[in-house]
């Protein structure tokens, strides 16, 4: 790992780094590491559409407004020489009386329709437009891309609309673990283009502040905004040190986080868990708290085994709430797998003996403990939780 020197950079080095920071700031809105897979799949669908000449459709779910604009631009860049690009925006559509008439013109000409906020069209009257567009893919060389925020969009569509919609689905997950989140931060800094700047920032210890931001709001656009504001703060300095860079990020996050809502999908899932799943998660939390003091804020996350969680769970059930007792470790192991599927645990590679398979926690253990306090739990389980929180 790079040394974390606190000494200022030389004058020449400072000038070079500040210049690169200004250039990186100008490019930061063009960097979308969290969309790489979605972009790859969408452009693959577009390439197939253009090469075959047949109509096609797909839906892209879980997008922020910035994400939608980026994917629409990338799609337009790929298709603009071979198809007409048509942007369908809900707000504009119903103030333009000639909008639907424009769809009917030159129907046999290749077209790519990118529908922003397609979930706004799910009322019966407005689904008629979706049906016309999707039915057009059966008749004409049209590609229709439905960009939606929610993942329950498909279930609200009328049968006739669903029958015309391709099963091709691209999901941009809003849930990411802290390691990926940290990776996105450094990707925003465009390492390959600005080596001097990146080398300087790599010597800084940002993990603690970024972990805090992740707990408060894991949205990528918030991370981008805070990174841009940090660079703006640093560009104004005449002398650079790692300590000043760390302080700049801390200042930006402290000023910015109160202005954005709590948005960590991890915590939103908790209220939908069964009591047994909550108990398993709480037992793991207790074990992670015991381990955390052995790990600094930049080291690998601590890990525990399936069996350790089971033994802790048995102890909790026997002492605090016998109704949760189980007669087999397989029951607890299955709950761990379900929690892993939901993204609440990061499960390691399979082992010959599942008892020794490892898990880690993708969020800060103390932030998770605070979230437990918001849940309605039996008094005996709450007492166990109070003991966990006090550790």
Automatic annotation (TrEMBL):
Coiled coil: none annotated. It comes from the Eukaryota. Gene3D superfamilies: P-loop containing nucleotide triphosphate hydrolases. InterPro entries: ORC4, P-loop_NTPase. GO terms for molecular function: DNA replication origin binding. One of its GO terms (cellular component) is nuclear origin of replication recognition complex. GO terms for biological process: DNA replication initiation. This is Origin recognition complex subunit 4 C-terminal domain-containing protein. It comes from Diploscapter pachys.
């Amino acid at each position: 790992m790079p040394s974390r020197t606190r000494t200022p950079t030389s004058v020449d080095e400072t000038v070079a780094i500040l210049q690169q920071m200004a250039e990186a700031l100008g490019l930061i809105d063009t960097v979308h590491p969290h969309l790489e897979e979605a972009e790859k799949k969408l452009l693959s669908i577009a390439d197939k559409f253009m090469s075959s000449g047949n109509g096609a459709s797909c839906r892209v779910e879980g997008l922020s407004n910035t994400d939608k604009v980026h994917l629409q631009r990338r799609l337009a860049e790929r298709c603009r020489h071979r198809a007409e690009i048509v942007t369908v925006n809900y707000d504009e559509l119903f103030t333009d009386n000639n909008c639907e008439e424009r769809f009917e013109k030159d129907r046999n000409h290749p077209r790519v329709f990118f529908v922003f906020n397609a979930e706004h069209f799910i009322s019966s009257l407005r689904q008629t437009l979706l049906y016309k567009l999707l039915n057009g893919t059966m008749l004409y060389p049209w590609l229709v891309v439905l960009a939606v925020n929610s993942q329950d969009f498909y279930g609200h569509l009328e049968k006739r609309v669903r029958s015309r919609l391709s099963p091709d689905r691209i999901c941009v997950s809003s849930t990411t673990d802290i390691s990926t989140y940290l990776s996105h931060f450094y990707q925003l800094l465009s390492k390959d283009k600005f080596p001097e700047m990146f080398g300087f920032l790599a010597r800084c210890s940002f993990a603690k502040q970024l972990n805090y931001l992740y707990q408060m709001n894991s949205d990528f656009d918030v991370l981008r905004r805070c990174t841009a504001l940090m660079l703006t703060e640093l560009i104004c300095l005449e002398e650079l040190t790692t300590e000043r860079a760390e302080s700049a990020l801390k200042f930006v996050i402290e000023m910015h986080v109160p202005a954005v809502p709590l948005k960590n999908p991890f915590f939103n899932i908790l209220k939908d868990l069964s009591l047994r799943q909550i108990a398993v998660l709480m037992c793991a939390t207790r074990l992670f708290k015991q381990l955390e003091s052995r790990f600094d804020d930049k080291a690998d996350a601590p890990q525990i085994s399936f069996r350790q969680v089971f033994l802790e769970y048995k102890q909790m059930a026997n002492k605090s709430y016998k109704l949760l007792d189980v007669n087999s470790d397989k029951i607890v192991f299955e709950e761990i797998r379900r929690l892993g599927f939901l993204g609440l645990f990061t499960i390691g590679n399979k082992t010959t003996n599942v008892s020794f398979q490892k898990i880690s926690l993708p969020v800060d253990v103390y932030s998770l403990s605070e979230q437990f306090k918001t849940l309605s739990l039996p008094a005996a389980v709450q007492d166990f939780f109070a003991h966990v929180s006090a550790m």
